[in-house]
Amino acid sequence: MKDQVWDEFLSGLPLILAGPVLQHTDSESVTVWLALRQPCQVELKIYETTDNGEVLGNDLCTGSRSTIALGKFLHVVAVTAHTTKQQINSDRIYAYDLQFLMEDTKEDTKLQQTLQQALCSSQFPTVNISYFAHQKPTFVLPPTQLQDLRMVQGSCRKSHGNGFDALPILDCLIEETASQPRCRPHQLFLTGDQIYGDDVADPLLWVATNLGDALLGWEEKLPVGRREPNDVVYRMPKDLPAGQRAEIATTQAGFTAGLHQQRAKANSHLLSLGEYYASYLLAWSPICWPTPLPTGKEMSGDRSVRKHWDREARDMRQFIHTLWKVRRALANIPVYTIFDDHDVSDDWNLNQAWCLRVLGRPLGRRAVQNALLAYGVFQAWGNTPEQFTAGTSGAGLLAAVQAWSDSKGTDTTAYEAIARYVGMPSRDPLTSLPTFVSDGPVLILERHPEAITWHYTVRSACHEVLVLDTRTWRGYPADQKAIAPPMLLSPQAFERQLTIPLQATAQQQENYSPLQATFIIAPTNVFGMKVIDWIHQWQLSKDKVFSTDVGDAWNIQTEALAQLLTTLFAQRQQVIVMSGDIHYSSVVRLSRQSHSPSATPASVLVQLTCSALKNEEPLTRLIHTRLKHWLLPEKPRYWIGWSKSPDMVELSAKQLPHLRRGTVSLPQKDSKKAIASLQEDNLPSTPPDWVCALEWVPRDQTRVSPFGVEVPWLLPPWRRARNARHQWLQPFLLWRSRWFQDGREVVGLNNLALIRFEATSSSEPNAIAQYLYWFSPWSPTQLVYSRFVSSLSPNQTLLAKMQPQPCVQPLGQQDVSDRSGL
Q1: What number is the average pLDDT over the span 523-541?
Q2: Torsion of CA 2, 3, 5, 8, to 10 degrees
């Protein structure tokens, strides 16, 4: 497709290219995000409904906003309607509608389109984004009672990843309960990797490059070279074709995705602004996908290249086939997001070495800024619309990006303003390397005070959700190697993202009923499998940190983990962490107790992990089965920790009796010496302030979902025919049998999580359940679910193993000659 053909292609599309996506929604405002083909004034109206959503009632409030021009054919807006007199209430279904007012350049008049008109075109004559006859999208606020709350989470959605896309399952969950305000899902949290900047399918990059340039109306000049301005040359995105970017992404941009014999993951790395923009449109809507996709024969004369292209093109066609369900779901539930590394590139800000390697090179810095800008206008705007009102940093960003687009990528003042607002670190004028500043004992990337805040808090009548930014606020050790694992939150970030928001909730309680639950969105896991910790420690000892993301796990940096637990439990007795990132789903429970039994009551943290929406791997498929808990079961783990100068050290089960008798030799609190001192049996030091124990919650037996029997929407015709030809093989594939697939610890296939509270012994919700929905290997068109249930009370049995026995000399005061226990 030539440039002119792409322009004609875009001209024939409906007004709405992606969306509407319902975003931040509370009792006083509703925000809806859209991407449009031409500039408009967009009006949003919120309606009451009756008969459980079936009949539209009075309009409750109205809001309007003009679009921001990202390019010739790309205009985005997050429009907010604010209530003035009557608030939006819980336990009721509301609807919304959109009107579009635009210029008719030929007639010099105003044109108006309804939502339905803006969704449709000759190529898309019927588009359905509603569950009701009135054809309006609907939503409900979180309920007043915790037992009625329904939250959904997911992460890691790679369009050509293995397996079926699990995000369309959300549409099934909403459709099943659309008319039941207390039962339908109330909020969706996407906890990272909504798109992949690295590991991009060749057909996807081909579309993204051409579509991105056509959307912008100009071609970006990408700076290729090691240092500015001495050796920089400029290349257009089309000069860097799909499947041929590994060298430039690795050596010129400095990205680490292609290191350690993983060059294929950088072959089609996103680089240009248009490519990042296009990737969001292609991930959320079927509208901008050209059909049919080119064949491998049309793209290359090389046989292996053609074969690879055709395989990925088949994956793309399957992905596109179910996008209509994704689009409808995102229009009917408040959506909240946060980035992780792949939204930019693999290992983004992993450690100080990555920052120096990538942000010190012109192309690496440009690509990171492009990715952050795309995240800002496609995700962050709707997460925190108040940051994008007049006079804010967000408003400055929107003005700068429009100026950058108007100048066709030549306005350096606009470019520098974008860098300032998205928080790109300043550079040393002599070396062009990013600048670091001190934050207590660690270093952080220096950013402008006007930079947008990516973390945020969502509050409702029954719960609060603190969404953490663990990518741009990392604390890098000042006295260790550049590859040393960082604190995922620096001391300053702990204060801003956790301490202050947790304290603010108490001050706002006059507006809500008493707080019933606290959720923390941590994109990377707080606790993972023991074997993964072993691998990370081994890779760290070999200085190979980029191949397995060493530094992204909280418990590799024990000071940061101890600080996290201390900060959370200083404010809350119960905390629920939602995370993703690791391509398997699970539930773990941490019980924590002051080491003095007479101190404050024990606390509990439950971690709900959901990953991946579409990126299952051979290893995750293996640990999904019974084989994992047969060969390498997850056993309880135990730590001792300190609150002042935070740190913690893991103890083995054999050391627990000595800890209880007060005869174990305690390590120094210096994290560099902690493990060594434990192994060398040094003299006792400071007694621990607290102890904690971790356990894995087993999953219940797999069940078939009520809406999951032979789902007709999943397979396109060509896929159904192929499945039918191989159906006779199913009884002989023992590893796909239902019995073998019923593992106990994790779900390792693509999945989506529904979270709810459940009662156990009384009417009050004292347990939390995560229902994980996935496609069964024994019948690919069947939807099943696995249920994990964790108590919200500490496990006193595990904690008792770590408490001092009565009438025993206090810990840390035993005879210095006693070195037993190790």
Answers
A1: 90
A2: 180
